[in-house]
Amino acid sequence: MIGNPMGGLLRDIDRRSRSTTRRGRSPKPREEAGPLPEPVELPPRAGGVVVTRFDGRARIEYGAAGFAGAPVITAVPVDPAPSDDEVTVFAVVEEVDQEAAVVRVWRLGDVPLSPAGPGIRVHVTATVRDA
After folding, report:
1. In this structure, are strands 114-115 and 121-127 parallel, antiparallel, or unpaired?
2. Which of 18, 23, 56, 94 is the 20 to 30 Å CA partner of 7?
3. Digits of tens for pLDDT over the chain (131 positions)?
4. In whole angstroms, what is the distance from residue 51 CA to residue 63 CA?
């Protein structure tokens, strides 16, 4: 491999791989953690678990939480019997006002898109909308 630049590179890598001493940079000093930020007061919220009907819809009423306007809704479906064929369920908020919200769970799999049907538990949280 005389005169071949690749040969010199491979020879150098071979030497380094057989070395028993650790060569390299010294570890970086750890940065000090600063003070904790001021605590934030969380807005009022209501939440619960609802179960879908035959059409994949579920309704949650906020009850005593009562909101002055429509809150922000978070809905996470939990499929009680997930299948092995990578079927995905997801929730869409269809209606929301200051008293209740309606979510619909959809199933995405072999059929392009269809309502999930009954029995899907949906974890729903309603939080005061930040102005």
Report:
1. unpaired
2. 23
3. 566 666 666 777 777 666 666 666 666 666 666 777 787 776 778 888 999 999 999 999 887 767 888 899 999 998 777 665 666 889 999 999 988 899 999 988 766 788 888 999 999 999 888 74
4. 17
pLDDT in the model for residue 58: 94
Q: Which of 106, 123, 109 is CA-nearest to residue 50?
A: 123
Residue 91 is predicted with a pLDDT of 94
User: What value, to the nearest 5°, has the Cα angle with vertex 131 and ends 39 and 94?
Assistant: 110
Distance from chain centroid for Cα 84: 21
3-state secondary structure of 14: helix
CA dist 109 and 128 (Å) reads 34
Residues in the chain, total? 131
Q: What is the 3-state secondary structure (H, E, C) of 48-74?
A: EEEECCCCCEEEEECHHHCCCCCCEEE
For the chain, the straight-line distance linking the first and the last C-alpha, in angstroms and rounded, comes to: 73
Coil, strand or helix at 5: helix
Report the relative pairing of strands 72-78 and 57-61 from DSSP bridges. unpaired
